[in-house]
Amino acid sequence: MLHLSKMLFNSFTIMRGLSEFSATALFMVISCMGCSVRDQGASGNLISSLNYGLATVVVMHIFGFISGAHANPCVSIACCLLGYIGSNMMFVYIACQLAGAAFGYFMLLQMLSQGLLDACKQGVCMVEPMNSLSSIQILSIEGFLTSVLILAWSALWDVRSGRFLDSVTLRMGCLVTVCNLAGGHLTGASMNPAKILIPTLFKGNPETVLLQLGGQMLASIIIPQLWIFAYTPNYRPLQIETPERHASELYLSP
Amino acid sequence: MLHLSKMLFNSFTIMRGLSEFSATALFMVISCMGCSVRDQGASGNLISSLNYGLATVVVMHIFGFISGAHANPCVSIACCLLGYIGSNMMFVYIACQLAGAAFGYFMLLQMLSQGLLDACKQGVCMVEPMNSLSSIQILSIEGFLTSVLILAWSALWDVRSGRFLDSVTLRMGCLVTVCNLAGGHLTGASMNPAKILIPTLFKGNPETVLLQLGGQMLASIIIPQLWIFAYTPNYRPLQIETPERHASELYLSP
Amino acid sequence: MLHLSKMLFNSFTIMRGLSEFSATALFMVISCMGCSVRDQGASGNLISSLNYGLATVVVMHIFGFISGAHANPCVSIACCLLGYIGSNMMFVYIACQLAGAAFGYFMLLQMLSQGLLDACKQGVCMVEPMNSLSSIQILSIEGFLTSVLILAWSALWDVRSGRFLDSVTLRMGCLVTVCNLAGGHLTGASMNPAKILIPTLFKGNPETVLLQLGGQMLASIIIPQLWIFAYTPNYRPLQIETPERHASELYLSP
Amino acid sequence: MLHLSKMLFNSFTIMRGLSEFSATALFMVISCMGCSVRDQGASGNLISSLNYGLATVVVMHIFGFISGAHANPCVSIACCLLGYIGSNMMFVYIACQLAGAAFGYFMLLQMLSQGLLDACKQGVCMVEPMNSLSSIQILSIEGFLTSVLILAWSALWDVRSGRFLDSVTLRMGCLVTVCNLAGGHLTGASMNPAKILIPTLFKGNPETVLLQLGGQMLASIIIPQLWIFAYTPNYRPLQIETPERHASELYLSP
């Protein structure tokens, strides 16, 4: 408890929490601002996928070396399970991400006129799974897509890819784009609990949200174990209990 | 005064000013040349966003290591406020950028036939904010998008991202593309006073231009302070009063 | 025989085989999941090409430093002919790739509802050559496109490009995208025997599949010889008989 | 004369010439194969621009470290004028490029069925300038776009960008894409004499071809002088008279 309170007032923790807050807020605004002008069909699907992927690039470029630019509670959970951040830090990250997503969503609603907000198909930033999918299919598709995301973060954090971090931001953008191209019309492919939860507080279908959320959570808990078991050779990641490392040592790998 | 005149005739200053002039001219021509063949709607929006983003990549690739390839007065202002260039140099940059934009715009008008010029929706290179947006919304959207751009430049210049500059050109291209995808249909998302001002001298709505310009200026003044306050750890950037550094030391970070 | 069985139980061999299995399965699911919502024509062609190319980026990013992320029997054959992996390892790779493709295809069928599966033009993940092409044209187009892929892998593995591996994942994604843009409507441009064979086991035209497969196989056998003969200067690649190298030495070049 | 004949039989010269031959042939086939399925208008313009840009990435990835992957006589002329290759080598390059383009074009015609060839708007790989443009406008647009390309190659070869070559292939792809997006509907934006000349030998309008060619040639001769005069600080590029450097020293900069 003392340790937690001490950590909370540490200047690097504040900087990293603030960075996660800003990253998630910025991500919400950029990825949802354009929803009102997209037509349905293949072309609209392509544009919203590109928008979502490129927003990831922007967020990782700006905040990557400050806090790792997770901007996604699933990523922070996986990061903790792989031992790169402590569990206290994980809770700080998740709290900042949820607060940032709410702040960003609120700002977005102020920035758009009422006509634009009404033009969004299912509400601003809302994604509805396709009707013809069963519950287990929604859960498994969302879980699969989030698994791909978590696998990519695990690979990014892995010591073996340490020399190849320059273009990793672009690769993650490609990943988010392709996961949206593949599954965007099926379950929305948000792969991000913060992006699912906040708009739902305003208006949403609690049942399908729980399925999407369940798939995302399952992926963020199972994949790190699998990564350690299957793809980590002899060594194990260091259990870093002190997340007060100097920020300049970090690049996308807090 | 003596210092200014001395600097103006320094060969590196001339080379860098000329580079900003060429960069902005080239940027104006490439990003506006294709306006006449685009249809409205989602597909046209995607193409003009890609065009704008990729033009940024081109300009940063060619002129990045000569002058930093700002090609945007907002970026030069932020660069000065963060202490990477002196204020004299900033004024040289901005003057060269405005002159370059005017030259590029003039060249473009010569290169296109009258029929093509007439086919451009709102005049060549002109962007009009959406009617349904209030003044404060135009100001805040343009300000938000320019803030994202200035944050990205701040991150690029930051000493902590010094090892990850290879693909930074592409990342900035992604950023400009996604900001245009998100806000292009709302306020035009030019994020560049030079690109807003020059076509307006020919034909334009002075009121909305002032709002766009105001948002851009606010972002370029506020964001650097915020970056220094929130995301710069212990050290402060060096106050470089002598911008005559050897150009080979610079890469995208004059 | 003893050597083979010994190798099979080596932990690095298992890790690499598992990685190829996962890579191919993941590749099958991501690249085929979206088939049901694409309309025909230019826009659908662009989206499916981007999907295929970006899926390559994802797979190479995640599994690149574990097993090289071939996910393609042709690539493994070329890798063996160029002497980078032994022939035993090649058979392990190919077996894992085919099993992974089958597993991925099976998972995909479970994840999609019947309506979505029926909406796919020619069956999920199936590609049919254009009717107006002769047999020799199908063989040569598929062979040409696979040759480009094998040439690119040969260049990637070449010692001379060893310093330029950071963005190679993105470049391979560009390559797969452009080969699909160019030839996707002609022969399907799968360039991957695993992706051709598995869906054919369910439903397919054996004759055209043989032509596609023939072109791919020819390319994967001829191009490595050509690369060694024409573009390898004085040295020859080392004949690595012991594929038990420490995995951390590998990056996309097993 | 003796020197030339000696050089011609040097194994590295042969390898580099062969590489230019293959690069140009491959470039012709990939960039022209898809012409038959594209509809006109914005979407078709986007796809053909992407196709052209990504084909550049492929060619530079495969042949970049062997011969520099010019695949374009204009680039070889500029390379010679900047002093990176000797004039003998330049003629070898240009001869190989023209032969490669002819070979690639011939192969392409064999690979496509008659119906596909007839479906191409203006003939396979042919580009016609827009009717409403005057001669001087065609010359200046083609000259401007080729200037951008030559400027980008000059920047690539410059010693100051030597540390940032990893993603340069992708940046050149972006450049070719955006130049096509901007000017593809105006003059065709081929920026490549080999790609203009070869299809014209079969069927073409000699007059407009000369204008395009003139613009390209002017750019490739003027821009290198301008680069040396304006953007090269104290040093001058070494006059390399002996192009027999070991190929492993080269990466995209012969």
UniProtKB/TrEMBL annotation, chains A, B, C, D:
<keyword id="KW-0813">Transport</keyword>
<comment type="similarity">
    <text>Belongs to the MIP/aquaporin (TC 1.A.8) family.</text>
</comment>
<dbReference type="Pfam" id="PF00230">
    <property type="entry name" value="MIP"/>
</dbReference>
<feature type="transmembrane region" description="Helical">
    <location>
        <begin position="136"/>
        <end position="156"/>
    </location>
</feature>
<dbReference type="InterPro" id="IPR000425">
    <property type="entry name" value="MIP"/>
</dbReference>
<keyword id="KW-1133">Transmembrane helix</keyword>
<feature type="transmembrane region" description="Helical">
    <location>
        <begin position="91"/>
        <end position="108"/>
    </location>
</feature>
<dbReference type="InterPro" id="IPR034294">
    <property type="entry name" value="Aquaporin_transptr"/>
</dbReference>
<feature type="transmembrane region" description="Helical">
    <location>
        <begin position="209"/>
        <end position="230"/>
    </location>
</feature>
<keyword id="KW-0472">Membrane</keyword>
<dbReference type="InterPro" id="IPR023271">
    <property type="entry name" value="Aquaporin-like"/>
</dbReference>
<feature type="transmembrane region" description="Helical">
    <location>
        <begin position="168"/>
        <end position="189"/>
    </location>
</feature>
<feature type="transmembrane region" description="Helical">
    <location>
        <begin position="58"/>
        <end position="84"/>
    </location>
</feature>
<keyword id="KW-0812">Transmembrane</keyword>
<dbReference type="GO" id="GO:0005886">
    <property type="term" value="C:plasma membrane"/>
</dbReference>
<dbReference type="GO" id="GO:0015267">
    <property type="term" value="F:channel activity"/>
</dbReference>
<protein>
    <recommendedName>
        <fullName>Aquaporin-2</fullName>
    </recommendedName>
</protein>
